[in-house]
């Protein structure tokens, strides 16, 4: 099976809004995933890996779009928030449990962490040269 915008939206209903996640944007990330993920390596997990790749990038793109529409700069880097204070209220999170060492920007979304865990496992069997 090959992932389409409709099958992606069916599997990940949080992306059904075509206003927030236009079909053209979903198609762009699906096309890029098709070029970057090897069917030989991913095997029957290719569709799921593709969907996680697309979901991760859609979330990042939506963050950029939101920042730009609020007068900010899209594409500015931001890591995982570990603490935040507003007036007299503060909250902290243990980001070490949510971050995967060496995963870089894949740590910025839950889809990315699922993707990188899977990517590190697929094709990890014996290799013959």
Derived structural class: mainly alpha
Evaluate the radius of gyration: 17 Å
Strand content: 5-15%
Mean pLDDT: 85
Q: What does the main sheet amount to?
A: 2 strands, antiparallel
Shape type: globular
- SSE series: HHHHEEH
**Count of DSSP-assigned helices:** 5
Low-confidence stretches: none
Number of strands: 2
Terminal residue distance = 30 Å
User: What proportion of the residues is helical, as a percent range?
Assistant: 40-55%
Q: What strand line-up does the widest sheet have?
A: 1-2
Task: Give a nutshell description of this structure.
The protein contains five helices and two strands, in the order H-H-H-H-E-E-H.
Give a written overview of the molecule.
With 129 residues, the chain is mainly alpha-helical. The chain contains five helices and two strands. The protein has helices at residues 5-11, 23-36, 39-42, 46-69, 110-121; strands spanning 83-86, 89-92. It has a two-stranded antiparallel sheet with strand order 1-2. The mean pLDDT is 85.
